[in-house]
Amino acid sequence: MDEVLRLCADRPRRTLDPGEVLIGQGLHGDRLYVLIAGAFEVRDGEVVITTVREPGSFLGEMAALLGTSYGADVVAVAPATVAVIEDAGAAVASDPDLTLAIARLLARRLRAVTSYLTDLKRQYAGTETHLAVMDQVLGELMTSGADAADAGSERADVPDY
Description:
- The protein is 36% helix and 22% strand.
- It is an alpha+beta fold and 161 residues long.
- Helix 4 runs antiparallel to helix 5.
- The longest helix is centred in the last third of the chain and has 29 residues, at 96-124.
């Protein structure tokens, strides 16, 4: 993450107090943020997806790469400072070092998710539970070329994830 912090050394900074929203889910923005200090929760509605604490972490990178709206709220849970990358789509397109840093982050996340799903597949293979479909989920994730994912459940009694 030191590499990312070096890439952002000359970028403007923004400070946030606990409870302040850095990124609003569903809003379209063309900013990418890099955590300098502090902590943020990534939330989908009332569900906390993760807490980001590591300096050099990207926030808003998927929307910047895809040119879409932000997929989650990002809320400060401690006093925080971020580097701000304006016109993120153009910055990612023109700066190979930035693009590579984001690609590495996304590859690490994909590896973690794939490992988790593979473990679930091993645990539930041959059972009659809904988790036995992990081989299908993995196959779809690995071959998906879809422009957008519609995450959630088709069941009315299960909330969207």
